[in-house]
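Hey L., structure's done. Input below.
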Amino acid sequence: MFVILVYDVNQKRVNKVLKKCREYLTWVQNSVLEGAISKANLKILKAELKKIIEEDEDSVIIYTLRTTRYTSREIIGLEKGGGDFIL
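Output:
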């Protein structure tokens, strides 16, 4: 499956969340990652993120796509992250 993960966390936890997410996904730009991931690894990533964030203060949103067949991605301006995965 392909996921897009966005997060809004307290500045104290930003680096920890980004580091953990980059173990599984590709960084696209500030607070946004994407990539192909197995169901098992997504479950692990979610569990690890729950240990890092404060659920009453932070937010992580994961968009899951079965396929990228009918999607497109357009960048206007500077491409900040890696271009390994194109949506």
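The chain has one domain: 2-65. The helical segments are 14-22, 39-52.

-- N.
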